């Protein structure tokens, strides 16, 4: 199992960012409002995207990549910060932008100053960016490069880990200040930030609801993206949103049904059903835990097997032994 602290992260942001009271906004809103100042993350022009880049860049380095390929609009904060982060880590960067080439100003100019190569899709459809990012990465691979392709906003399980860590940081600040907010509000665009905060919420149970205000996609699409990306992020650190116990219960019921059916049809000899159940249930449990990556870390075989997997193996062996014993006993005695 990997935990959050085991996932590689490169230091880019100045953390923690302050948690500040906003008295005039509170008076206007009629509710106590505090601001988590992630505009002050400190790298480049700051902002929320720096946190995700700490994990994206570390993953690119871990996988031996030499060029970061991503994109957005010509004025995308994400794209500009990605170009800058790639430069500081010694990686090249290709940015894909929707639309037609325009003179470099603002973030576009900053990205070029950071050494990024800019490609335009020639199409105003924003969603074309992610497709062209894949095409550019394939071209680079054909040229012998090792690209790391990531879609707009860095909205992947890995990128969302930045806001899982931010959720942990915020929990520490709430603990120290004694604040117990009812809601955490944020803007939701590519959905990585919202997904990371949701995964952190499921993990830490801080007592607040995460409320996203969609800024660039339909709410239904955001809901689906947040759920999927949060699930990916949670699986990476072994805190799945759908508890393993739920899946195990499903496997449990399915096995009981199959064995009852076999038994009723006389296909399972009396007395062996229980042992078959123990073998199959233990195997299903071990496989589900392995697949979900949420096992309790074991001290066995250098951590390769968890304690519960070892116990599953013991239960399987015991079940097999009891089946064999039953067969031997059931054998008619030699005349
Ligand atoms: C301050 C701020 N909050 C939230 C978002 C939305 O983040 P995401 O694209 O991860 O949904 C953005 C987008 O860049 C942003 O600038």
CATH overall fold name of the largest domain: Rossmann fold
CATH architecture term of the largest domain: 3-Layer(aba) Sandwich
Strand order of the largest sheet: 5-4-3-6
Level of helix content? Answer: 40-55%
Coarse structural class: alpha/beta
What portion of residues belong to β-strands? 5-15%
Gap between N and C termini, in Å?
Answer: 56 Å
Instruction: Give the low-pLDDT segments.
Output: none
- Oligomer class: single chain
Our count of domains comes out at: 2
The average pLDDT is 91
Shape: globular
What is the tally of beta strands? 8
How many strands, what sense, and barrel or not for the largest sheet? 4 strands, parallel
Radius of gyration: 26 Å
* Helix count, DSSP H or I runs of 4 or more residues: 11
Order of helices and strands: EHEHEHEHEHEHEHEHHHH
How do the strands and helices of this protein lay out in sequence?
Blueprint: E1 19-21, H1 23-29, E2 34-36, H2 49-62, E3 67-72, H3 77-88, E4 92-97, H4 106-113, E5 117-120, H5 128-142, E6 147-149, H6 157-177, E7 183-188, H7 192-204, E8 209-214, H8 219-236, H9 244-264, H10 273-292, H11 307-330
Helix pairs in contact: 2-3, 2-6, 3-4, 6-7, 6-8, 7-8, 9-10, 10-11
Bound molecules: pyridoxal-5'-phosphate.
Pyridoxal-5'-phosphate is lined by residues 47-48, 77, 153, 155, 186-194.
